[in-house]
Amino acid sequence: MRTSREEDAGVTQAQGPYDVVTLGRVGVDLYPQQTGVSLADVHTFAKYLGGTAANVAVAAARLGLRTAVLSAVAPDPFGTFVRTALTGFGVDPALVHTIPGTQTPVVFCELFPPDDFPIHFYRRPVAPDECLTPDVLDAPATAAAVRTARALWITGSALAVEPTRSTVFAALERRAGGEVWFDLDWRPGFWADPAEAPALYARALSYATVAVGNRAEVEVAVGTADPESAAGELLRRGVRTAVVKQGPAGALVRTARERYVAPPMPVKVVNGLGAGDAFGGALCAGLLAADPLPQVLRAANAAGAIVASRLACADAMPTRAEIDAALHDRQPPATPAAGTGAAPPHPEPTDAGTPPEQPAAGGPAGTAAAPPARPAQAPRGTRAPHPGVDQV
Question: Residue 26 is inside which H or E element, if any?
């Protein structure tokens, strides 16, 4: 399926290269205004920009970076909303393509804080971002954007289907040794055969200079969920900086010479979704600024914690002032971790990264749940996955 572009000429290289180009999904989040009830019992929803590639680009833009998203929407009102929202957040929408015959995807979630946020993706039979073909990279402005960006941020979910899988690898080839930051972003419901994922992740890692993921995601990528072992394996695969979000044990960063763990930040969780994207945007800002790794990790944890305390994803991304205030008020310093032993045992995080009544760091958000009274929940049997929905 070929794409049509709205404003490819809008990529203004006269302003210089982008700081970050993200490649992956965009869409619309429809999040409930009621907490502690099943989706069937929600009365009202609020509409927000969503999708991990959009969220990371917005998070980085909020911190002063020049960003763009390489993705696609449908020729429908929600597609118009995505472009308008990106522009409003300071993200260039010029690389967002239009795919005829599709619908811009929507995402619903349920809110059972502090640790349970089932998410439902409506992307069938095919989402626009799954239709990007390698020839989108032939447009001179798009090719220049991908080639010259200070960092290209790719997502594991974009490897799930063709032709976008081939488009990701074509973009990686065009980087010619430039910075590639791989968000492992594991969404098993996106894959026709999840068993294909490890080999494709390994191929993408061969291009990556930075890799970031939670324990479930690194297990898919390198075969182990142990943070120390996984970080070491990522480094052996050629990644220069490995970041493993460990839930309540904190967020771990390793390079060939450095190792730090940033502790979790206490927060009253409203919605854990999107916190990992805030973490990613702050990671981009810190790494591009060449800040010391402990400082980068603390800021990323704070960004994730702030978003976890809010309902939305893109709309909730913090400013630098908000991150600095959170660090000043709450965050102890990250400390070098002695030795290379595994992190202590802890409850497995949900994809939102907040285990029941426990602090959670970087899984994905670097947050620590301040445990409120758990609301009464609808019977779990009413919330099972069904075709077209991935519940995590």
Answer: none
The sign of the torsion formed by the CA atoms of 110, 325, 64, 168 equals: negative
Buried b (16+ CB within 10 A) or exposed e, 180-207: bbbbbbbbebbbeeeeebeebbeebbeb
Residue 243: φ, ψ to 5°: -120, 120
> Per residue in 237-283, pLDDT tens?
999 999 999 877 889 999 999 999 999 888 899 999 999 999 999 99
Measure Cα distances from 179 to 120, 137, 172, 236 in Å.
Answer: 32, 18, 10, 17
| Positive or negative: CA dihedral 135, 141, 145, 148 | positive
Give the C-alpha separation, 8 to 275, whole Å. 30
Q: What angle do CA 380, 189, 36 make, to 5 degrees?
A: 30
Bridge-based pairing state of the strands 91-92 and 241-245: unpaired
| Longest distance between any two alpha carbons in the chain, whole Å | 56
Q: Decide: helix, strand or coil at residue 209.
A: coil
pTM: 0.83
How far is C-alpha 163 from the geometric centre of its chain's CA atoms? 21
Contact 216, 351 (CB under 8 A): yes
Tokens of 377: 């929940």
